[in-house]
Amino acid sequence: MKRKTLSGQIYTYFLIVIVLSLLSVGAVSYWQSSRALDDQVKQYMEQMVDSANYQTDSYLQAYELLSNAFSSNSDVRAFMEIKPDDAYEYYVYSDKIKKFSESSVQSVVTLYKQLNMIYVVGQHGRSFIYENQNLLNFDPVLVQEQFNNLMKIAGDGKIALLNMSIRPIDQGTVVTMARKVRGPSYGDENRGVVAIEIKLAELAKTWDRVSLGKEGFFFIVDDTGNYIYPPSMGQRKPKDELASLVLASGNQTFLHKYNGEERMFVSRKSGYSDWNLVASMPVEELRRPADTIRTTTIIVGLVTLAIALWLAYRFGRSIIAPIRGLKDSMRETEKGNWQYIDEIGRTDEIGGLIHSYNLMVTRLSDMIKRVYEAELEQQKNQLELGETKLERQRAEFQSLQLQINPHFLYNTLETINCYAIVQDSSEITEMVEAMAFMLRYSVQTNLEEITVANELNHVRNYMIVLQHRTGKEFEIDVAIPPSLLLEKMVRLTLQPLIENIFQHAFPDGVEPHHFIRIDARKEGGLFQVFIEDNGTGIQPGRLAELRTKLEENRLAEPEETGESQGGGIGLMNVHRRIQMVFGVAYGLSIESEWGRGTRLTMTMPETVRPRLRG
């Protein structure tokens, strides 16, 4: 098996990376650019067709207003009822319609250029023709078959656009807008037709603005398959293959081979005229920019590949030579010959590797000695760190026990002083005794666990002092079963939570409907004490902040949390105090709903009592 060299592997990997990079970048770039160009051209064509469609509808809607004016004109409706042989009535109504035509056309300046003629045809065979600004002096009688065709095609009271003209000379150059008209009695029977012929030459100026390149073109097909524009398309048969595809596509883009060339057709159907405006461009012309990008990408990729391979070859040789020298020296080191390699003045990573090898050889014995010394030093540091941590926990615990709110003491002493001055009452004795019990209970610094009964007694003394201070009586509902009063818990954890409730849960004062309930239970090896109130609760943002601080398992500093100020050692310190005694698996948890109250839960291990032998 042929041995692989490092230089060959480097060259091979470089070749794979370069080829894959060029192929992936080139393919993705070509595909993305081609797709983007196709979408851009398609979007451009759609915008051009939509613009032409909008302007065409605007032109036709202006003529619809003119048609509405004629079809609703009383003289036009009366003209439909004249007798075929009454020359006088024909003259009178023709003159009125003429004046109405002149005033209507002159009121809209744009109608002068596009309007070919207006004619009113009655079922009786008489007609009135107004050729733009000229009134035809003769009275042409339309062929009955042609009139019947108009009555058949024109909508019942709706506009119909027809590719026809009453004069053969105008056929193919105008579009007729026709509408049936009833008589003056507004009955159900249609009496004639009002038709307006619009010159396509003027309207086509809007369509000629659609720029589709050298090989692109624009055309219009009506809903029957007839070609409206341009005139050259009028030579095609109605509803041929191309027209059928346009009618079937609706507003979709499709590809079709036209005159032996693959082309893209973008069709938009007008909701007003039922015309299909279509723009077409050769696919080859659309793809020409993408082909240019593909050719450029291939040429640039090949040149880049050649340069990259040459650089990879030079780079591989510059790395392999010093590595081979280092490999030979390390073989000698394996044999026990600590061989020093002369540094050749290189400042790159390989020079650093040679320098590191020399240091390894010359300082190997020193390093072994330092490893042993470091190991001993680490063990010593760990022992000292454990002792320091224990001392810190003791100091934190004693500091927590000695913390008591100065404001509470000052306010209490001031209250006692007021009592002493104002009256000689047994209340002073009761308040001082409660205060003495609280102080004596608080300053004990041992780490012993006390019972629930002890904590409840401490809360009772706190309530005595609080009621004298505030002058309001308030009772706490203690629902703890008597069997749980001797369960173990941590000193000074219950009273701070009660104090916190009075300070924060009832900011506007204690009302008769307010309550504080203390309960406890044992379940699953755990002993839990619940303190619940129906105060203001905790806002969601503040609740999330408190829970985050509880998860950090650290003491709360007085300057960084509001619970310590005016609330004993605070929620954070109660949580940490429980963990110091029972471990990090236990502590304080908070449940609260803003505006409805808060529930605090202290979780501790269940007290295991020895069984008495009978």
Automatic annotation (TrEMBL):
Coiled-coil region list: 369-403
Keyword Ribosomal protein: no
Pfam families found in the cross-reference section: dCache_1, HAMP, HATPase_c, His_kinase
EC code: 2.7.13.3
Domain Histidine kinase residue range list: 421-608
Keywords: ATP-binding, Cell membrane, Coiled coil, Kinase, Membrane, Nucleotide-binding, Phosphoprotein, Transferase, Transmembrane, Transmembrane helix, Two-component regulatory system
Catalyzed reactions per annotation: ATP + protein L-histidine = ADP + protein N-phospho-L-histidine
UniProt superkingdom: Bacteria
Membrane topology value: Multi-pass membrane protein
Domain HAMP: 317-369
Name the record gives this protein: histidine kinase
